[in-house]
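User: Could you walk me through two proteins back to back? I'd like the raw sequence and the structure tokens for each, with a short line separating them so I can tell where one ends and the next begins.

Assistant: Of course. Protein one, sequence then structure:
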Amino acid sequence: MKQLPNMLTLLRLVMIPVYLLTFYSENSYAHMVALIIFILASLTDVLDGYLARKFDTVSKFGKLADPFADKLMQLSVLYTLVDAGYIAKWFFWIILTKETLQILLGFFMLRLKPPIIIAANKYGKATTVLVFLTIILAFFRVPGIYFLQIFVAIMALITFFQYIIKFITNYRITT
């Protein structure tokens, strides 16, 4: 049971190429099957975090691999949605830039002595849920999704700037 959360994270990483192969397959149901794969991958994210906390099996590997797997899956799906014309390119680039910079900053913070770890806050979690919702709605080509993308992009930028402010504050305290 101790390794189950990490195994779920690894499963999510394995699901990325499965999602991509499915999305780009010639099957007439490919996009709907890809959506199901994405939803299952998202459920593994919820489940691995729950199990790690419930059974007190939070690990260094999990702290690094889990958010990396989440972001990689999310960005892979967003890329395919841009490629299919379901979402705007600018939306993808904003999310990609934010997530890439946040990953790089996260790795930098872990290398500090002492390392700085910034827990996700309610705005970060809300942004993640909104990106998830945007992805789901994009698959169904819901009208008005452009306005949701604007809102989510603004939330993502606010969340990122909050992350930077927390880093600067914590860095000043620890140095």
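----
Protein two, same layout:
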Amino acid sequence: MSKRDYYEVLGVDKSASSPEIKKAYRKLAIKFHPDKNEGDASAEAKFKEATEAYEVLSDDKKKQAYDQYGFAGVDGMGGPSFNANAFHGFEDIFGGGGFEDIFGSFFGGGGQRRGHGRQQQRGSDLRYDMKITFHDSVFGTKKEIKYRKDVSCDACGGSGAKPGSNKKTCSTCGGQGQVRRNSGFFSVAQTCPTCGGAGSVIEDPCNVCHGRGIEEKAQKVNVTIPAGISHGKRIRLNQKGDSAPQGGVPGDLYVYISVESHKTFERDGNDLYCAIPVTFTQAALGSDIFVKTLDDKKIKLKISPGTQSGKLLRIKGEGVFYLNTSRRGDMYVKLIVDVPTKLNSKEKKLLKDFAELHGEDDNPEPRSLHSL
């Protein structure tokens, strides 16, 4: 499905100013945020669409490239891409406070998240592109992948502080991780600008992670590829993404599937298609042939006398598995009558005799393509 124009997504004109673009995004972000519409896939899609549009239109360079070249202008600029970091735009809209900060102040939550002021950060989601064979996409498989991710720093135990040193309670927020800002008739909680929501500050940072509390390391994980997966689908591995600082929830790892083409078979939904050549005599007189399936089984097919080239024969239950079930689609075999191109004198004479006996028409009437 083609993307919608970014200006159309946010509901603004091309001449809209930065504050107008920010205001339009803020309205959509509040309306469609996943925390407010839990389980609503449509709302999540609209939120992602709005966030993607805002990422481009709020950046002067990306906006200029988009205005001049459209989507092609921003494809090579490192974005837009929706991941956990895409929420930074949303946080920026509210001055550093998250979605729960805003709605908590509206409904008496005091801006605190589930009864505590200190924000728990979430690690970034990661993407891994995997290419699999056509056979594996139909029957499923397991693969080990290697990738790099942020994990808790071994040297400091994830604290970010040099071993043997202590953290100091943040003087700005008093250890709460948030500061409050009055805005009209309601109060908005914001992430503390001094400690970044941790509630404490590091006076002597770790020499390995330099105060981040996390370091990048190589990882291995086994991925189960379900039978019937199709090209472009993704597999979510829960909490296999980057670890979060200060013991927050890790992000997820998304494995995007790319399926290689097959030399014989093509897929349409859950059905498989292939073509089988048959001789002129097999098509004319009828015959039994054996057809090999994708998993190398041999299936007997009956060709009726007078079969025309292009006829489809169905082999039930030899197609692609429906995801997470034992049910399968069908396999369709297209018969192609193979007309010989090299004939000896005896073969030519036999065919001429056949033509005379058959009474072939030298002036056939044209017919529509659909009647053939």
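DSSP finds ten helices and 15 strands in the chain.

Let me know if you want the two compared in more detail.
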